[in-house]
Design a protein that fits this description.
The structure holds two protein chains of two kinds.
Chain A: E1 4-13, E2 16-26, E3 31-35, H1 42-50, E4 57-62, E5 65-66, E6 77-80, H2 92-106, H3 110-121, H4 130-142, H5 158-170, E7 176-180, H6 188-205, E8 208-213, H7 216-222, E9 225-230, E10 233-238, H8 240-245, H9 250-255, E11 260-270, E12 273-278, E13 281-285, E14 293-298, E15 303-306, E16 319-329, E17 333-340, E18 343-350, E19 363-368, E20 374-375
Parallel strand pairs in A: 3-8, 3-9, 6-7, 7-8
Antiparallel strand pairs in A: 1-2, 1-4, 4-5, 9-10, 11-12, 11-14, 12-13, 14-20, 15-19, 16-17, 16-19, 17-18
Chain B: H1 2-6, H2 10-39, H3 45-50, H4 52-63, H5 68-75, H6 77-110, H7 116-122, H8 125-128, H9 131-142, H10 147-154, H11 167-190, H12 195-203, H13 208-237, H14 240-245, H15 253-262, H16 267-294, H17 313-342, H18 358-366, H19 368-399, H20 402-409, H21 416-426, H22 438-463, H23 466-474, H24 479-508, H25 511-516, H26 524-534, H27 537-564
Helix pairs in contact in B: 2-16, 2-21, 5-6, 6-11, 6-13, 9-11, 9-17, 11-13, 12-13, 13-16, 15-16, 16-21, 17-27, 18-27, 19-20, 19-22, 19-24, 19-26, 22-24, 23-24, 24-27, 26-27
Classes of the chains: A alpha+beta, B mainly alpha.
C-alpha cells in the first residue's frame, strides 16, 4: 500500500502540452478521483503513474520511492482499463491468475520457467500450484465470480467482466489501484450498483485508489477527494463538498453541478455584505473578495421563485425580477429557465404536489440568500 | 540518454536482428547488383569490410566503373528488344485481362447471374497453379500433338490454332492464369457505386445502360486501373511462363537475365537487366499504389451499402455463359495435365491412348527426394517468416516502425529472377559463401514471401487492442513475456493462415528455385522444370499433379482457419 505523489508533472506530445505542471498528493488508503472533460489530461496523468507514458518533466512517487525510471511492469500499480482489456483467450481463472504466474516466473530459474510458460500458453499444458489456485479462488469469491471461474470472459455480462478486471488487478496486491473510466461501458442501473461495490471493496481493503472519470456524479459519490482537471491542468482539489460549495472557478462551478454565473463589479460594503453590481442587477453576498471584477456564482437550488407579491417578509434581500422562459418538470424538482435582463438563470424548485407550476411568459420574483452567493 | 539505455531490452535486440537480416539478405544484394551494373564485375561488399585485399580490388573495380552497360541497353539489340518485348507483353496481358474481366466482375458484383458461386470458385483455380505448369498445360493442349490442335485440324484447320511457343502462347497462359488477381479488386470496384447514386441517375431520367456507363463504371475506374497495373507487374515479373514458352528469337527480360547468369556468367549484363527489372516493377507498383490511395471514392467507409442486383434474364444468362467459358479454360488445362500424368502415351488424339499409374510410381520411387526437399525448404521458410513477420508486425503496429514496414514491402517490387541474381552475385564468395546452400534458398524464399505473411499478421495484430497488452505489462509481465503469452496466442489464427500461404507459395516458387537450388536440394518445382526440359513430360505431369494437390489441401486448410478467426 502506498501514497502517491505527483510533482510538477508535464507531458508533451509532439509539442502539444497534454499535462502542465500537475501536482497531486494522494494519501495512503485514499479514494481519489481525477475528474474532467475528455481531453483534459486525466487519463494521461493516470498512464504516467502506471508507467505507460514517460513524463516530459516532473516526478512521480509511489510510497517513498521515485518511480519515473521504473518500467510499467515493475510498478505494482493494479489497473482496471476502460475496456477491461481481459485476455480473450483465457478464462476467468486464468485472467486473474496471470499476475501470479508472472510473479512466479520472475522468481524461478530457467528450468522452472518452462512449465509456467506452458500453462500460460494453454491451461491444458500445466497444473496450477495450490497457493495460486487458492488465492485466485479467494479473490473470485470476494467479487462473487467463483462460480464462473472456468468461463471464457466473452461469455460474461458487462458487470461480470468488470469484476474480473477488478479481481485481476487486486490479486497482485498493488500499491495503488488505478481505474480508468471503469463504469463507462455499463448501463445506468449496473453503474449504480458497481459504484457501491467498488467503494465497498476500496474501503474493505483500504487500498489507495485513483479513479479517472468524466462523470461528476460518479466522482462526487465515490471519492474522498477529487481533482478537477481541464486542458492539462489541475484546477482544484478538494472533498466533494468543498468542490460543490466553494468552486474556485466558473468552469468548476459549472462542471461540478450546475451554476448560474454572472459577471459583476464589487461596488461597496454594506452591513457586512459585499454589494455587486452587474448589468441590470444588484446583488449582496456574505462573501468578501479582494478583486473588483467578480464572477457571481449561484446554484439553481439556492434561488427561490415567487409569483409577484407573494414573497414573505424574511426574504427581502436580493430580489430580482424576471420572466419564465421554459419550465421543465423533472419529477422531484421543477427547473425553470428565467430571463433576467440579458441573462438567463436556471432555478430549481422543489415540486410540491398540488402547487401549480409557473408557466412560460409568467412574471416572477427571485430571491437569493446572500450566504449562498459566491464571489470568485 | 538514460531512457535509451533502459529501453534496450529483449525486444530491441530482436529489432536489431531483423534489421540486420534485411540489411544483409535484401539491401546488400540489391545494392551490390546496382554497383555491378556499373563495374561489370562482381563486387564483394562484405569481403571489402573484412579483408583489405578485397577492398583494394573493389576500389580498383570502381575506378573502372562506367555507364557502358547502360549504353548497351540501347546499343545492344538483344537487351533493347528484351526490354521492348517485356513491356509489350505486360501491357498486352493487362489490357486483355481488364477487357476480359469487366463483364465477369460486373456479373459477380452487380447481377443475379446464375452459377455465380461456381464461377467464383473456379476463378481460384488459376491461383494455385505455378505458371510453368500452366505453360506446360498449354503445350499439351495447343502443341503440335495437342488435343485442341487435333480438334482444330479435324474441323478443317491447318497447322496449329495457336503456337504455344510464341508471344501469343505466353499471353494466353498469363491472361488465363493471372486474371483472378484483377478480378477480385474489380468486383470490389463495381461495388463502390451505391444504389442511391444509381437511383438518383434513374430518377433524373437516365436509362439503365446510360447509368452504367456514366455512373457505375466511372466510379469503378480507379479500381480497374489499379488492377491493370497490378497485372502489369505480375506479368512483367513472371518467369515460369516465358522460360517454358519463349522461343529462341523472342527476348524477354526475365529469360535474358537468366541466360546471362546461368549460361554465360555475364555479371555486368545480368546486373543491368536486373536493375531495369526492379526499376520498372517498382515504378508500376508505385503507380498502382498511387492509384489505390488517391481515388478510392470512399469505398472503405464503414457504412453498409445496399446494392440493387441486375436480374434481367437475357443479360445474366449471357454473362454467365461468357464467364463459364472463360473460367473453364484453366480447368481444362489442369485436366489435360491430369490426363497426361495418367497416360501410357498420348499422341495427336483427343484422349490418351491408354491409362497407367506408372508415372506416379516413378515419381514416388525416384523423386521422393524432391517432394521431401520441397517440404523441408517450405517448412524452413515458414518458420523463419512466422518469427520475423510476427515481430515485424508488432514493431510496425505497436511502435510505428514505418522503416521496417517499408523494408518488408521492398520484396514486393523485386521480381524473383532479379532477386535471385542479386543473391547469387552477393553470396558466391567469402566471407558469406552461401550460394548453393539450402540456407540461402530458405532465406530467399522467406524474404520473397514475407510481405504476404506480414500483411496477414499485421491484420491480426491491429485487431488486438493495445490495452490488452498494457494490461499484461501492468500485471507485471515484461514486454517480451507479454508478447509471448498474450499477443502470440491471440495472433495464432492469423499466423496459421499466413504461414500456410507462405508454404504454398514457396512450393510453387519457380524463379528462385531454378536459380538458387543446389542439385541435392532440388525442390519439386525445379524437378518438374528439368523434366520438361529433358522431355520427360509424363513424369513432369505426375509431379505437377502431386504439387497441385498438396497446394489444394493446404489452401483448403488455410481457408478453414481464416474463416474460424475471431
Amino acid at each position: 500500500m502506498g501514497s502517491v505523489k505527483v510533482s510538477q508533472l508535464t507531458k508533451e506530445f509532439s509539442g502539444v502540452h497534454a499535462l502542465k505542471n500537475v501536482n497531486l498528493d494522494i494519501q495512503e488508503g485514499e479514494f481519489f478521483a481525477l475528474l474532467g472533460p475528455s481531453g483534459c489530461g486525466k487519463t494521461t496523468t493516470m498512464r504516467c503513474i502506471a508507467g505507460f507514458e514517460q513524463p516530459t518533466s516532473g516526478t512521480i512517487q509511489i510510497g517513498e520511492a521515485k518511480v519515473n525510471h521504473i518500467p510499467p511492469n515493475k510498478r505494482n500499480c493494479g489497473m482496471v482499463f476502460q475496456s477491461y482489456a481481459l485476455f480473450p483467450h483465457m478464462n476467468v481463472f486464468e485472467n486473474v491468475a496471470y499476475s501470479l504466474n508472472i510473479k512466479q516466473l520472475n522468481s524461478s530459474n530457467i528450468a522452472a520457467k518452462l512449465p509456467i510458460y506452458l500453462r500460460l500458453l494453454n491451461r491444458k499444458l500445466g497444473k496450477y500450484p495450490k497457493p495460486i489456485e487458492q488465492k485466485v479462488m479467494e479473490i473470485l469469491e470476494y467479487v462473487e465470480l467463483d462460480k464462473h471461474a472456468t468461463r471464457l470472459t466473452s461469455e460474461l455480462s458487462g458487470g461480470q467482466q468488470q469484476r474480473v478486471a477488478l479481481a485481476r488487478a487486486l490479486v497482485m496486491e498493488p500499491a495503488v489501484l488505478l481505474m480508468d473510466e471503469p463504469l463507462s461501458n455499463l448501463d445506468q442501473k449496473l453503474r449504480h450498483s458497481m459504484r457501491n461495490t467498488i467503494r465497498r471493496i476500496q474501503q474493505d481493503l483500504g487500498i489507495t485508489t485513483i479513479f479517472v472519470t468524466h462523470d461528476q456524479e460518479e466522482a462526487m459519490s465515490m471519492a474522498d477527494r477529487v481533482a478537477v482537471m481541464d486542458s492539462g491542468e489541475v484546477k482544484q482539489i478538494g472533498t466533494p463538498i468543498e468542490l460543490y460549495s466553494r468552486p474556485s472557478t466558473p468552469f468548476i462551478a459549472n462542471f461540478v453541478g450546475t451554476s448560474n454565473v454572472l459577471k459583476g463589479t464589487v461596488v461597496g460594503q454594506e452591513n457586512g455584505y459585499s454589494v455587486v453590481k452587474g448589468h441590470g442587477f444588484l446583488i449582496k453576498s456574505t462573501n468578501h473578495v479582494e478583486q473588483k471584477e467578480v464572477n457571481v456564482i449561484v446554484r439553481p437550488e439556492n434561488i427561490k421563485a415567487f409569483k409577484p407579491g407573494t414573497i414573505s417578509s424574511d426574504e427581502l434581500t436580493n430580489i430580482i425580477e424576471g420572466t419564465v422562459l421554459v419550465s421543465t418538470y423533472l419529477g422531484s424538482i421543477v427547473r425553470y429557465d428565467i430571463k433576467v435582463e440579458e441573462y438567463q438563470l436556471v432555478v430549481d424548485t422543489t415540486f410540491v404536489p398540488g402547487e401549480s407550476i409557473l408557466t412560460e411568459g409568467e412574471k416572477v420574483q427571485l430571491t437569493i440568500d446572500p450566504e449562498r452567493v459566491l464571489l470568485i | 540518454m538514460k531512457n535509451r539505455l533502459s529501453s534496450f531490452n529483449g525486444l530491441t535486440l530482436v529489432k536489431v536482428l531483423i534489421y540486420l537480416f534485411f540489411g544483409v539478405f535484401l539491401l546488400l544484394p540489391l545494392v551490390s547488383v546496382f554497383l555491378v551494373s556499373f563495374t561489370g564485375q562482381p563486387i564483394n561488399l562484405l569481403g571489402s569490410i573484412t579483408d583489405p585485399n578485397i577492398l583494394n580490388s573493389t576500389i580498383e573495380k570502381f575506378s573502372s566503373a562506367s555507364f557502358d552497360n547502360y549504353e548497351k541497353i540501347f546499343t545492344n539489340k538483344t537487351y533493347f528488344s528484351a526490354v521492348q518485348n517485356s513491356l509489350e507483353l505486360a501491357i498486352l496481358v493487362s489490357l486483355i485481362v481488364i477487357v476480359m474481366c469487366i463483364p465477369i466482375a460486373y456479373g459477380i458484383a452487380r447481377t443475379t447471374m446464375p452459377f455465380k458461386k461456381t464461377i467464383a470458385a473456379l476463378c481460384t483455380i488459376p491461383l494455385i497453379v505455378p505458371t510453368f505448369i500452366s505453360a506446360y498445360a498449354i503445350i499439351i493442349m495447343f502443341g503440335r500433338a495437342g488435343w485442341v490442335t487435333y480438334i482444330y485440324n479435324s474441323l478443317g484447320g491447318e497447322g496449329m490454332l495457336l503456337n504455344p511457343y510464341s508471344m501469343a502462347g505466353i499471353v494466353l497462359v498469363q491472361v488465363f492464369f493471372f486474371f483472378p488477381y484483377a478480378l477480385w479488386p474489380m468486383v470490389a470496384a463495381f461495388k463502390v457505386s451505391d444504389i442511391s447514386l444509381e437511383e438518383a441517375s434513374l430518377n433524373l431520367g437516365a436509362r439503365n445502360w446510360f447509368t452504367f456507363i456514366f455512373v457505375t463504371f466511372p466510379l469503378a475506374i480507379p479500381g480497374v486501373i489499379s488492377s491493370a497495373l497490378l497485372i502489369f507487374t505480375v506479368s512483367f515479373s513472371d518467369f515460369g511462363t516465358p522460360i517454358i514458352l519463349a522461343p529462341k528469337d523472342l527476348n524477354l527480360l526475365v529469360v535474358e537475365a537468366y541466360r546471362e547468369i546461368a549460361g554465360f556468367f555475364n555479371w555486368g549484363g545480368a546486373a543491368i537487366l536486373t536493375v531495369i527489372m526492379v526499376l520498372v516493377a517498382a515504378f508500376f507498383f508505385w503507380l498502382q499504389h498511387l492509384f489505390t490511395k488517391g481515388k478510392n471514392y470512399g469505398s472503405v467507409s464503414g457504412k453498409p451499402k445496399q446494392q440493387k442486383l441486375n436480374d434481367s434474364k437475357g443479360l445474366t444468362r449471357t454473362l454467365s455463359v461468357y464467364s463459364l467459358v472463360l473460367v473453364i479454360i484453366p480447368v481444362l488445362a489442369m485436366i489435360s495435365i491430369l490426363l497426361q500424368s495418367l497416360a501410357t502415351t498420348w499422341g495427336k488424339n483427343p484422349l490418351p491412348n491408354g491409362y497407367t499409374l506408372s508415372h506416379y510410381q516413378t515419381i514416388f520411387s525416384s523423386s521422393m527426394g524432391n517432394i521431401q526437399n520441397s517440404i523441408v525448404l517450405a517448412l524452413g521458410a515458414l518458420i523463419l517468416s512466422v518469427i520475423i513477420a510476427t515481430f515485424v508486425s508488432y514493431f510496425v503496429v505497436r511502435q510505428n516502425s514505418s522503416k521496417l514496414d517499408f523494408m518488408t514491402s521492398i520484396p514486393l517490387v523485386v521480381p524473383g529472377i532479379a532477386f535471385g541474381i542479386a543473391l547469387i552475385q552477393t553470396f558466391n564468395t567469402a566471407p558469406l559463401h552461401l550460394t548453393g546452400t539450402a540456407l540461402l534458398l530458405i532465406v530467399a524464399y522467406t524474404i520473397r514471401r514475407l510481405p504476404y505473411m506480414v500483411r496477414s499478421t499485421m491484420g491480426t495484430m491491429r485487431a488486438i487492442k493495445q490495452d490488452i497488452e498494457e494490461a499484461a505489462v501492468n500485471l507485471g509481465a515484461t514486454p517480451l513475456t507479454a508478447a509471448i503469452t498474450i499477443i502470440g496466442p491471440l495472433m495464432l489464427p492469423g499466423i496459421a493462415a499466413g504461414s500456410i500461404l507462405v508454404f504454398i507459395t514457396v512450393i510453387k516458387e519457380t524463379s528462385i528455385s531454378i536459380l538458387l537450388a543446389p542439385a541435392d536440394w532440388a525442390p519439386m518445382s525445379l524437378a518438374i522444370f528439368q523434366n520438361i526440359l529433358r522431355g520427360e513430360y509424363y513424369t513432369a505431369a505426375a509431379m505437377s499433379v502431386v504439387l497441385v494437390i498438396i497446394v489444394l489441401i493446404l489452401q483448403a486448410i488455410a481457408n478453414r482457419i481464416s474463416k474460424n478467426q475471431l
